[in-house]
Write a structure and sequence with these properties.
20 strands; single chain
Length: about 250
Protein backbone atom coordinates (compact mmCIF):
# COMPACT_ATOMS: atom_id res chain seq x y z
CA UNK A 1 0.00 0.00 0.00
CA UNK A 2 1.35 3.42 -0.92
CA UNK A 3 0.50 6.41 1.20
CA UNK A 4 1.34 10.07 1.11
CA UNK A 5 1.90 11.12 4.70
CA UNK A 6 2.16 14.55 6.22
CA UNK A 7 3.52 15.24 9.66
CA UNK A 8 3.05 18.02 12.18
CA UNK A 9 5.21 19.20 15.04
CA UNK A 10 3.91 18.86 18.58
CA UNK A 11 4.04 22.57 19.29
CA UNK A 12 1.23 24.81 20.52
CA UNK A 13 -0.59 26.81 17.89
CA UNK A 14 -0.17 30.55 18.14
CA UNK A 15 -1.86 33.33 16.19
CA UNK A 16 1.39 34.38 14.52
CA UNK A 17 2.01 30.89 13.06
CA UNK A 18 0.51 31.02 9.61
CA UNK A 19 0.57 28.95 6.45
CA UNK A 20 2.07 29.55 3.05
CA UNK A 21 1.63 28.13 -0.43
CA UNK A 22 4.10 25.72 -2.02
CA UNK A 23 2.85 26.28 -5.55
CA UNK A 24 6.09 25.65 -7.47
CA UNK A 25 8.07 22.44 -7.82
CA UNK A 26 11.11 22.59 -5.49
CA UNK A 27 9.91 25.82 -3.94
CA UNK A 28 10.29 28.42 -6.66
CA UNK A 29 11.21 28.83 -10.31
CA UNK A 30 14.89 29.00 -9.31
CA UNK A 31 14.56 25.49 -7.78
CA UNK A 32 16.08 26.60 -4.47
CA UNK A 33 14.22 24.13 -2.19
CA UNK A 34 13.53 26.94 0.27
CA UNK A 35 10.54 27.62 2.53
CA UNK A 36 10.24 30.60 4.92
CA UNK A 37 8.16 28.58 7.40
CA UNK A 38 9.65 28.39 10.88
CA UNK A 39 7.21 26.25 12.90
CA UNK A 40 9.39 23.13 12.56
CA UNK A 41 12.83 23.76 14.08
CA UNK A 42 15.87 21.80 15.16
CA UNK A 43 14.50 21.85 18.68
CA UNK A 44 11.11 20.25 17.93
CA UNK A 45 11.71 18.15 14.80
CA UNK A 46 12.17 15.02 16.94
CA UNK A 47 8.58 15.45 18.18
CA UNK A 48 6.99 15.14 14.72
CA UNK A 49 4.01 12.80 14.53
CA UNK A 50 1.90 11.63 11.62
CA UNK A 51 -1.09 13.97 11.22
CA UNK A 52 -2.84 12.05 8.43
CA UNK A 53 -2.26 9.58 5.58
CA UNK A 54 -3.65 9.42 2.06
CA UNK A 55 -3.97 6.02 0.41
CA UNK A 56 -3.62 6.17 -3.38
CA UNK A 57 -5.76 3.05 -3.72
CA UNK A 58 -3.29 1.44 -6.13
CA UNK A 59 -1.70 -1.92 -5.28
CA UNK A 60 1.80 -1.13 -6.50
CA UNK A 61 4.07 1.59 -7.82
CA UNK A 62 5.89 4.55 -6.35
CA UNK A 63 4.77 8.11 -5.74
CA UNK A 64 7.58 10.10 -7.34
CA UNK A 65 5.65 13.37 -7.32
CA UNK A 66 6.48 16.23 -5.00
CA UNK A 67 3.04 17.73 -4.29
CA UNK A 68 2.10 21.39 -4.44
CA UNK A 69 -0.07 23.19 -1.90
CA UNK A 70 -2.24 26.18 -2.78
CA UNK A 71 -4.85 27.82 -0.52
CA UNK A 72 -4.94 24.87 1.85
CA UNK A 73 -5.33 22.21 -0.86
CA UNK A 74 -2.61 19.65 -1.62
CA UNK A 75 -2.37 18.44 -5.23
CA UNK A 76 -0.45 15.28 -6.08
CA UNK A 77 -0.16 12.33 -8.46
CA UNK A 78 -0.67 8.65 -7.77
CA UNK A 79 1.79 6.01 -9.06
CA UNK A 80 -0.43 5.61 -12.15
CA UNK A 81 -0.44 9.41 -12.63
CA UNK A 82 -4.00 10.00 -11.51
CA UNK A 83 -4.18 13.57 -10.23
CA UNK A 84 -5.82 14.15 -6.86
CA UNK A 85 -6.62 16.99 -4.48
CA UNK A 86 -6.86 16.61 -0.72
CA UNK A 87 -7.54 18.95 2.17
CA UNK A 88 -4.02 19.77 3.37
CA UNK A 89 -5.15 19.92 6.99
CA UNK A 90 -7.07 16.63 7.14
CA UNK A 91 -6.07 14.50 4.13
CA UNK A 92 -9.67 14.22 2.97
CA UNK A 93 -9.85 13.61 -0.79
CA UNK A 94 -11.64 16.42 -2.64
CA UNK A 95 -11.43 15.03 -6.17
CA UNK A 96 -9.51 12.58 -8.35
CA UNK A 97 -8.80 12.73 -12.08
CA UNK A 98 -8.06 9.46 -13.91
CA UNK A 99 -6.84 10.20 -17.46
CA UNK A 100 -6.41 7.49 -20.07
CA UNK A 101 -3.22 6.57 -21.96
CA UNK A 102 -0.76 8.14 -19.54
CA UNK A 103 1.89 6.51 -17.40
CA UNK A 104 5.50 6.48 -16.32
CA UNK A 105 7.18 8.53 -13.61
CA UNK A 106 6.47 12.19 -12.88
CA UNK A 107 8.32 14.26 -10.30
CA UNK A 108 5.94 17.17 -9.96
CA UNK A 109 3.12 19.42 -11.14
CA UNK A 110 2.82 22.94 -12.51
CA UNK A 111 0.50 25.59 -11.10
CA UNK A 112 -0.60 28.57 -13.22
CA UNK A 113 -2.94 31.41 -12.41
CA UNK A 114 -3.91 34.65 -14.07
CA UNK A 115 -6.27 36.84 -12.12
CA UNK A 116 -9.14 34.68 -10.89
CA UNK A 117 -8.35 31.79 -13.26
CA UNK A 118 -6.09 28.93 -12.15
CA UNK A 119 -4.99 25.68 -13.74
CA UNK A 120 -3.05 22.61 -12.73
CA UNK A 121 -0.73 21.10 -15.34
CA UNK A 122 1.31 17.92 -15.48
CA UNK A 123 2.79 15.58 -18.04
CA UNK A 124 2.11 11.88 -18.35
CA UNK A 125 4.15 10.05 -20.98
CA UNK A 126 4.02 12.20 -24.09
CA UNK A 127 0.96 14.23 -23.05
CA UNK A 128 0.63 17.60 -21.37
CA UNK A 129 -2.57 17.66 -19.30
CA UNK A 130 -4.55 20.64 -18.03
CA UNK A 131 -6.84 20.14 -15.04
CA UNK A 132 -9.30 22.48 -13.36
CA UNK A 133 -8.08 22.62 -9.73
CA UNK A 134 -11.61 23.29 -8.48
CA UNK A 135 -13.08 19.97 -9.52
CA UNK A 136 -10.42 17.83 -11.25
CA UNK A 137 -11.92 17.98 -14.74
CA UNK A 138 -9.98 18.52 -18.01
CA UNK A 139 -9.76 22.17 -19.05
CA UNK A 140 -12.06 22.81 -21.99
CA UNK A 141 -10.33 24.73 -24.77
CA UNK A 142 -6.83 23.56 -23.88
CA UNK A 143 -5.47 21.39 -26.68
CA UNK A 144 -7.84 18.54 -27.46
CA UNK A 145 -10.03 17.66 -24.48
CA UNK A 146 -7.57 19.16 -22.03
CA UNK A 147 -4.40 17.57 -23.39
CA UNK A 148 -1.59 18.28 -25.88
CA UNK A 149 0.48 15.59 -27.60
CA UNK A 150 4.14 16.62 -27.12
CA UNK A 151 5.55 14.39 -29.87
CA UNK A 152 7.70 16.62 -32.13
CA UNK A 153 6.98 16.55 -35.87
CA UNK A 154 9.34 14.64 -38.17
CA UNK A 155 10.30 11.09 -39.02
CA UNK A 156 12.08 10.16 -35.78
CA UNK A 157 10.56 7.23 -33.91
CA UNK A 158 12.43 7.22 -30.60
CA UNK A 159 10.89 7.17 -27.18
CA UNK A 160 9.57 10.45 -25.79
CA UNK A 161 8.29 11.33 -22.33
CA UNK A 162 8.50 14.18 -19.82
CA UNK A 163 9.15 13.12 -16.23
CA UNK A 164 10.05 16.51 -14.71
CA UNK A 165 7.67 19.50 -14.45
CA UNK A 166 8.47 22.41 -16.71
CA UNK A 167 8.87 26.07 -15.87
CA UNK A 168 5.86 28.38 -15.67
CA UNK A 169 6.68 31.89 -16.89
CA UNK A 170 3.88 34.38 -17.40
CA UNK A 171 1.38 32.55 -19.64
CA UNK A 172 3.95 30.01 -20.86
CA UNK A 173 4.69 26.41 -19.92
CA UNK A 174 8.32 25.72 -20.86
CA UNK A 175 9.21 22.05 -21.28
CA UNK A 176 12.07 19.79 -22.25
CA UNK A 177 11.69 16.04 -22.78
CA UNK A 178 13.41 12.68 -22.50
CA UNK A 179 14.17 10.56 -25.54
CA UNK A 180 16.32 7.54 -26.37
CA UNK A 181 20.10 7.55 -26.78
CA UNK A 182 19.98 5.67 -30.07
CA UNK A 183 19.89 6.77 -33.70
CA UNK A 184 16.10 7.09 -33.44
CA UNK A 185 16.31 9.79 -30.74
CA UNK A 186 14.34 12.97 -31.29
CA UNK A 187 16.46 16.12 -31.69
CA UNK A 188 16.43 18.00 -28.42
CA UNK A 189 14.38 21.15 -28.21
CA UNK A 190 13.00 23.40 -25.51
CA UNK A 191 9.43 24.40 -26.23
CA UNK A 192 7.06 26.94 -24.72
CA UNK A 193 3.34 26.23 -24.84
CA UNK A 194 0.49 28.59 -24.12
CA UNK A 195 -1.03 27.96 -20.70
CA UNK A 196 -4.30 29.29 -22.13
CA UNK A 197 -4.90 27.04 -25.15
CA UNK A 198 -1.88 24.70 -25.35
CA UNK A 199 -0.55 26.06 -28.63
CA UNK A 200 3.20 26.11 -29.34
CA UNK A 201 4.50 29.66 -28.80
CA UNK A 202 8.24 29.22 -29.37
CA UNK A 203 10.89 26.54 -29.78
CA UNK A 204 14.64 26.60 -29.17
CA UNK A 205 16.54 23.86 -30.99
CA UNK A 206 19.53 22.58 -29.04
CA UNK A 207 20.73 20.92 -32.23
CA UNK A 208 20.90 23.52 -35.02
CA UNK A 209 19.15 22.92 -38.26
CA UNK A 210 21.22 23.04 -41.46
CA UNK A 211 22.05 26.68 -42.17
CA UNK A 212 21.42 27.84 -38.58
CA UNK A 213 24.21 29.44 -36.51
CA UNK A 214 26.54 26.71 -35.28
CA UNK A 215 25.57 24.21 -37.95
CA UNK A 216 28.90 24.77 -39.70
CA UNK A 217 30.69 23.09 -36.76
CA UNK A 218 29.01 19.74 -37.45
CA UNK A 219 30.45 17.11 -39.77
CA UNK A 220 28.91 17.07 -43.22
CA UNK A 221 25.64 15.14 -43.24
CA UNK A 222 25.56 14.61 -39.47
CA UNK A 223 22.80 17.10 -38.67
CA UNK A 224 20.28 15.26 -40.81
CA UNK A 225 20.39 12.26 -38.46
CA UNK A 226 21.38 13.89 -35.16
CA UNK A 227 19.19 13.54 -32.08
CA UNK A 228 19.42 14.02 -28.35
CA UNK A 229 21.03 17.06 -26.68
CA UNK A 230 17.70 17.17 -24.91
CA UNK A 231 16.76 18.75 -21.59
CA UNK A 232 15.60 15.66 -19.74
CA UNK A 233 16.19 17.05 -16.26
CA UNK A 234 14.63 20.16 -14.73
CA UNK A 235 15.28 23.77 -15.65
CA UNK A 236 15.70 26.87 -13.49
CA UNK A 237 14.36 30.36 -14.17
CA UNK A 238 15.59 33.81 -13.21
CA UNK A 239 12.14 35.40 -13.52
CA UNK A 240 13.34 38.95 -12.86
CA UNK A 241 15.74 38.88 -15.81
CA UNK A 242 13.67 36.42 -17.87
CA UNK A 243 16.61 34.03 -18.25
CA UNK A 244 16.10 30.27 -18.47
CA UNK A 245 18.86 27.87 -17.43
CA UNK A 246 18.59 24.52 -19.20
CA UNK A 247 21.10 21.65 -18.87
CA UNK A 248 21.20 19.18 -21.76
CA UNK A 249 22.38 15.66 -22.40
CA UNK A 250 24.74 14.84 -25.23
CA UNK A 251 23.82 14.41 -28.86
CA UNK A 252 23.32 10.90 -30.24
CA UNK A 253 24.95 8.55 -30.78
CA UNK A 254 25.98 9.15 -27.17
Amino acid sequence: MLCLALASACVPATPELGTTDWSVYLGDAGRRHYSPLEQITRENVAQLEVAWEYDSGEPQGTMYTSPVVVDGVLYGLSPQLDAFAVDAATGEELWRYEPEDVGGAQRGLMWWENGREARLFYTGGRYLLAVDPRNGTPVDGFGADGRVDLTPPGDHEGALFVSVPGVVFRDLLILGFSTSESAEAFPGSIRAFSAVDGSLVWQFDTIPKPGDPGSETWAEGSLERAGGANVWTGMALDAERAILFAPTGSATPD
